[in-house]
Structures are given as structure tokens and as C-alpha cells.
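Researcher: Following up on the earlier apo prediction. This time include the ligand. It's guanosine-5'-diphosphate, with the SMILES given after the sequence.
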Amino acid sequence: MTETIYALSSAPGKAGVSVVRVSGPAAGQSLSILTRGKTHSPRKAHLSYLYDGEQVIDHAMVVLFAPPASFTGETVVEYHLHGSRAVIDSLFTVLASQPGHRLAEPGEFTRRAFENGKMDLTKAEAIADLIDAETQSQKDQALQQMSGALSALYEGWRERLIKSLAYVEAIIDFPDEEIPDSETAKAKPGIELLCADISAHLNDNRRGERLRDGLKLVVIGAPNAGKSSLVNLLAGRDVAIVSDISGTTRDVIDVPMTITGYPVILSDTAGLRPEAVGETGHDKLESEGIKRARARAQTADIKILVFDGTAPQRCSATFDLHDENALIVINKNDQITPAQKQIYADIPNAVFVSAQTQEGISEFLDVLSAKIKQVMDVPRGHVSLTRARHREALTHALGRLSHALNAPSPELMAEDLRLSARALGRITGRVDVEDLLDVIFRDFCIGK
Ligand SMILES: Nc1nc2c(ncn2[C@@H]2O[C@H](COP(=O)(O)OP(=O)(O)O)[C@@H](O)[C@H]2O)c(=O)[nH]1
Ligand SMILES: [Mg+2]
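Model: Understood. Below is the ligand-bound prediction.
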């Protein structure tokens, strides 16, 4: 017997209106108890008194959804209450005392919607992403995925794969006859084409995942170059300690923010100083910080290399990290001499700024925004891969497909194709995903 679940679906705390959602076979019964037997027709808003015995709980708007035409596919009742803690507590007390009722777990409403065939897994994940979206671009991506663009793509691939599989299985079904190699060869162009499509999708620079999780920007440079000053300036608040004592920043400090509509995580790091690599006391701590800074530089999407323009030479430990994903910033332009400026003359795109007077900062932001756009921009209508879970399944599917191309017999080829189709099916939840569900829905909040 399925339990009936309930939860506050709007944000907790005082509000104009709060929404409590109840879903399950007994949702109609509790509605009847709460409203003293008043009839509610489905999909109509009713203004009803809710009672706890003799006591009025609230005068609320109630909407009943009859199965299967509801979010979860079950009977659903939405109570639009006055957003008061006392009102919600009273309603919860009554609901808790109803037979078969219990509080919902995180993501349980969406999980039921998936289990009742109302949506596939990519759409369920898109709902979580939409709720979490903080920027326009994240919202657009989640909406696109929710509209089914991603499931259409993956299901389309799975169908093509199943056609190839059917063809190979037909060959196996004629065991008496000698099968010429040319027959299995006929299945190959379709598989090769599919391999190319999946590879291209996988090879998209992790755009979708970056958009979802935030682009990683890391600020790297020698001690006292002004890294923390620059991070504070970009963050618009003091997130990192600025001081003229080198080695002040030890651990990596991550600051989430939005730049030109894209979510980024800006990381301040310890200053690179090769001579500080030691094993004891102050040096040991600092060298650990430097190790972490270097590790971040490796995994960052964009590196911001900061140089102290007033230093006698340019820091080679920093300059060594220069590549196509790096931006070069020369700081302390307020104190720089023409001779010092000459040190950077060979770097064509260096931006001179002063974190102190803020000169050059808006120019730097322009350069940074252009770089972010270059990394993130997706042609309109392009469907991006959004999750590591999908990437993993696609990589697996692709591996099996390549294997199938070299299979020594139609039987082994068919087996590879079956495994590949299964990997694709796991993305949308078409095939056995029971083991995945707990992991996927754990990310949701209660009431969703
Ligand atoms: N004159 C000048 N001093 C700066 C500028 N930016 C930072 N500083 C100073 O340089 C020192 C080191 O700055 P900080 O941001 O802590 O550098 P970090 O070690 O790279 O994080 C501090 O005393 C800052 O006040 C700048 O643009 N001009
Ligand atoms: Mg610092």
C-alpha cells in the first residue's frame, strides 16, 4: 500500500501564501476530514475552511488533482494557506494523524512522478536544476532540458542503436547458413555514425556541466602581487585578507559569483614562491598552500595570472602557467615605472590594472567577460550535456559501440550493442535504474 506523503512545498518561514502538497491514495480522505466532507471538484480552486475538530485552521484555497492528471500521477491536494508557522503546524498535526500519511522525503514528489511515468530522469533532474538556477543561463538550460530536448536526443540514439541491434540479431537467427562477413559489415556505417554523434556531444568542452556547476576561475600569482585585492574587488566585498605580509593567503578561498550572466566560482590562492617549499613550520604550511594553488590552476577553466608590476622581474613560476586559458594581469599600475612596464612588453594581451585605485579594472572585466563567453557560449538550440552522470553513461555507451565495430562475431557484436543501449537507457531511466534513484533524488529538497 502506497503511503500518502505531505510537505511544505514553498519556502519555509513567514510568507503571504504557503503551499502544502499532499500526494497519495489517501489524499482525498484527509481533504474530506479537513473540510468536513465538502466536495472538491478536480482542477478547480475552492475557497474552503480547514478544521482540526472544532477549531478552524485556516480559510484556504484548495486544489484537488485526480489521478493520473497530477504532478505525481497520484491523487494530489494542494493547500494554499496563509503563510504562518502556526497555520502550517496545525495542518501538519492533522495530516500526521491521518491513516497512511507521513512527511515526504527530499525529492519524493518528483520521484513518484518518475515512477508513475510522468517524466523521465533527465526531466526530473532538470526540475532540480531549475529550482537551483541562480542565473539566466542556468535557468534557460534547465528549461530546455525540462522540455525534453535531452531525452529526445538520447532516446533517438537508443532507437538507432536498437535498429542496428535488430539487424545483427537477424543475422544470428540464420545459424544454418554460412554468414558472410559482408552482412555484419552492413551494420557498421550506422554504428560509426552514432559513434561520431556521441563523441561530438561528449566533446563539447563540458559547457553544460560548467553552466550548471559554475565556471572555475582561479587567481594565481606571486605573493603580494595583489591577488586577494583583485578577488575582493571582483567580489565587491572583503572575502580574502589583504596584507603586505607575504604568505597571508594559505588555503584556496572559493567565491561564487555571476559575471555577464554566467555562474562562476572565483578562487583566491596562496602566492607561488618556489623557495618556500620546505618541510617545517611556516614553510610547511605555505608549501601546502602553494601545492593547492598549483592543483587548482590545473583544473581551472580560466586562469587569471596576476603579476606585481612594481617587482624587479616578472615571476617565472606564474608565467610558466601561461596558456590559451590564461589571462595576464599586471597589477599596481598606480606605481609602475615605464621601465617596469617594459618587462611585459612581449605579452600582447596583458591588462594593466590597479586593484587599489581601480584603474583598468573595467577593461579587465571586459576581457574576462569575453573569455567567459568564448568558453561558455552555446549556439541557439544546441543541447548540452549537463551532468557527470550522463557523461559517464555516454562514455560507457561509446566504448561499447567502438568495441562492437571490431567484434569477431555477430553474437559478440550484438552483446556490445545491447550493453551500449542499456547505458543510454540508464540516462533517461528507461532501463534498470533502481540503484541510481536514491543518488539522484537525494539532491532535491523536501517538498519537491
Ligand atoms: N600600490 C598598490 N598596492 C597594491 C595594489 N594591489 C594590492 N596592493 C598591496 O599589495 C599588498 C599585497 O596585496 P594582496 O592582495 O594581499 O596580495 P596577494 O598576496 O597577492 O593576495 C597589500 O599591501 C596591498 O595593499 C595596487 O594596485 N597598487
Ligand atoms: Mg592573498
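Model: The chain has a mean pLDDT of 89.
Researcher: Noted. I'll compare it with the apo version next.
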